[in-house]
What we know:
By secondary structure, the protein is mainly alpha-helical. It is built from one helix and no strands. The protein is rod-shaped, with a radius of gyration of 46 Å.
Amino acid sequence: MENFQFWLTLTTATIPAAITGLLSFCASWLxxxxxxxxxxxxxxxxxxxxxxxxKNELEKxxxxxxxxxxxxxxxxxxxxxKEMFGMVMNAAAPALQEAISDEVKKQRNP
Length: 110
């Protein structure tokens, strides 16, 4: 009988503890699943935001690069124009100098 009392007491304590443990495990498992789901959604949202931000940054960089190339092209064209004008002036300078000195001589000696 004493042995029966021991097993009865052990069973009476063990069954509610086991049930409580299983219920606690199930509750925490469900909560963790919910947390994981919300973290996945947050991660997805954050990645979409970063992706949009990255696309915007790339577009800005492309536009800046395009403007820089246009400025380089304009500067190059301006430099070429100056160089061509300088070459023409250097080539035409002796002829112009001669024409100007002839005109000055004509005006001095009417």
